Structure formats: structure tokens, C-alpha cells
TrEMBL record:
Species for this entry: Corynebacterium marinum DSM 44953
NCBIfam families: putative hydrolase (TIGR03624)
InterPro entries: Zinicin_2, Zinicin_2_N
Recorded superkingdom: Bacteria
Disordered: annotated segments: 1-48, 442-462
Listed name of the protein: Hydrolase
Taxonomic lineage: Bacteria, Bacillati, Actinomycetota, Actinomycetes, Mycobacteriales
Biased composition range(s): Gly residues: 1-10, 31-43
Record Pfam families: Zincin_2 (PF10103)
UniProt-listed SUPFAM superfamilies: Metalloproteases ('zincins'), catalytic domain
Amino acid sequence: MNTGGFGFNFGPGDDDDDDKSRREQNPFGPFGFGGADGSGGLGDMLSQFGQMLSGMGSSMNSPEGQGPVNYTLAERIARQQIGQAAPVRDQDTSAVEEAVRLAELWLDETTELPTAGGRVVAWNAEDWLTQTLPMWKRLVTPVAEHMNEAQLASLPEEAREMVGPMLQMMNQMSGMNFGMQLGNALGDLAKQALTGSDFGLPVAPTDVTALLPANITAAGGELEVPGQELMVYIAARESARQRLYHHVPWLVERLVSSVEEYAAGLVIDTSHIEEATRELNLESGDPAAIQDAMQRLQGMDLSPRISSRNAQAVSRLETLLALVEGWVEYVVTNAMGERIPSTGKMTEAWRRRRATGGSAEQAFAKIVGIELAAPKVAEAVELWRRVDVAVGQKRRDGVWDHPDLLPSAEHLDNSADFIDSLLDEGESDEFDREFAKLEELLREQDGQDDGDKNSGGDDVGR
């Protein structure tokens, strides 16, 4: 879990080491409270809270400022991060539409999933923020809600009793801190995003294929690839994702429900902090011992340990993201490899981008606060290639018909077992078809025999 994201770095600014250490000793620290002298008294907490409210204006009183995340504040900070985004020009819109049209035509040859249809649009960074924010809210809200609950549960009993009268106020402050962190993260991603569902996450509205031409131009500056080729390549990746999200109806909800499941099991463990402070013997009253203890505290990791009772949800997310991006990369490479010579170069650049921040796990860590291992996209690409060779394109894409048919995390490292299961299924299907033909033939023969008998009986009667 990302303790520097949607976790516990809730102070209003960058503290020095001493202030940070004092705050971590304060049982109210997770909610952002703490006196400047480390006393953590009620007066100091209220004073700090008043300072936090200063200048926040109407965002505190807006409907979206009352929940676990102050989304009004988040959006305002994100727009400040983005700055003045240039409007999308007509020629950019035309370029995006033409690139998507060509990409869709080529993808028709490499996948059984038809085009998603819908609208093709060109966005700037502000458009990306506005259009994707509803889905980010779906992903962020359950994590923030359960994080607040877990934080309260992790406090000592006496601290929880003190919190009671101030709970609403503290929740508002927590919502503001979440909002500030979310706003900074979204503003950063808006300037990086190349498409509506960039980072492999279905955050764009349903049936919208969106590209960000200004961001694409900036990203391709050092690539030495013609701009039109880069635009078609990125359009192909986005169009392939949209085919999946549109024609595999369970996929988007599966991703969202995995986040919700993980959030529902959040647990915060502070036992190591309590153990460390006990060993320091801070209650001795000896000034020299206390000074020594404070110096030792500065070198300790006193971050709360965050985990989930539903850790399998993270594994499911990692596997789904790998399978989606692996499938996209495979079908796009097949569609464009022989048509555009720079496809290999652009694919390698995309992989580097994914490794250095432009990836689903980075987006989740920054925005949702869930630490994912890097999805095994390269392994997924190889798995889809082997499946294609073994059972063909139609059977390959048919795997997406139901989540139970998909490869598991173990199959990413060992695809042979998964391919064997597909081959066994194919042999069984072929046997069933042949058996059905035999049964039909026998029924036809039985019908003919019955007809001959009836015909003979009529002759005797006459």
C-alpha cells in the first residue's frame, strides 16, 4: 500500500524530520492533527485544523466536500496543475478521426472482436480530467471510505474516545487531505495521458475512443518517428482496448469490484510502532535517555503497515491488467507490424514508458493508493501468441467470453497448462460434434426402418 499516497502523509506541507517524527508519535497523526510542539493537545489540534481550513472557501461546504474525498478541492487542484490547456484544433480532431479509422480497418484482420463504435474524439488535458473523473471517483471512494474506518480502528481505545466529539471535523480534514493528494495526482496524469483509457484502465466514458494529440506530439518528440505513424499506433492501442471494454461486458466491472474488494479488507497495523516506543523507555523521565530515544526514533520506519484481508483482489487486478495490455499489444503488433516499419520501435518505447511511470500500477499507486506489482505484460503477450498458434484467432478471442475462461496468474509464467486445457476442450468439442452427427444418422435410419415396417404391414392387410 502506498503510505505516501492515500495513506498517512496527511500533513499540510513538507515537514522536517523532527516534526515528522513527532507527528508519527501522535495517535491522531493519521487524521492530520498534531501540535507544533509535539504535545498533541486539543487546542493545538483545533488550531491546526483552523489553519487547514483557511483559504479553502466553498469547497468545504459543497456536497462533494462532505464525503471521504473532497472532490471539489481535488478537481480545483488538478486544474491548477494542468494550467491553461490549449483548445483542440480542428485539424487535430481530423487527424485523430483518420488515425482511428485506419487503425480499426487493420484491427479487423487480427481480432474477432468488432469495433466498439461510438464517438471518436480529440481531447486536451482538461478534457481528460473532466471526462475520466467520474470513473476515478468510483475507484477512489471505496478506498478512502475504508481507509478512514481502518485508521479509526487502529487508534488506541483512549484515543478513539477522544476522537468521538471531533469525528465529523476530522473526517472533513481527512477528506481534504485525500482531495489534495488526488488533485495533484490527477493533474500530473492528465499531462501524461495519451488516450482516454491510458495506463490500461477503463476510465473514459463508455463507447468513447479518445486521443490527446498535444500530449502525443510531446511524447513523440524524441522518438524520431513520423507523427502520423505514431498517431495511428496509439489509435490502434486505444481502439483495441475499447473493443475489449465494449464487447466483454464483465471486464470493467471486474476491475472496479476488485478495487472495492481490496478496500473492504483494509487493515492498518501499528503494533511495530508501539513495540518500538516501548523499547525506548520514554517514560523513564531521564532527559538524557529521552534525548537518545528521540535520536533513535528519527532512524526508524514508523509508517503504519497497511494490508488487506482480501489480498487476492490485488492479484486479480495485476493479472487482468496484464492480460488486457498483453492482448492489446499482440493484436496491434500483428495489425501494424508489416504495414508500418516503425511499429517495433514504438512498441519498445511504449514498454519503456510503462516501466518509468506511464502504467496502470503507477496510476493506482498515485490515485487509488493500491500498490501493484508491475503487471507481467511481456509474459501475457507471449501467452496470447502461443494461444493464437495453438487454437487460432477465434478461439483465442473466445477466451474473453467469461472470466472463468481466462488464464490465471500462474499461466502467465507457464502457458503450457492453459494451452493444453484449450486443446483438450477443442478435442472434446470435436468429439461431441461427431457424436451428434452419428446420433442424427441413427435417428434417420430408425425412421426409415419404421417406415418400411409400416409399409409392409399395410400390404398384408390388403
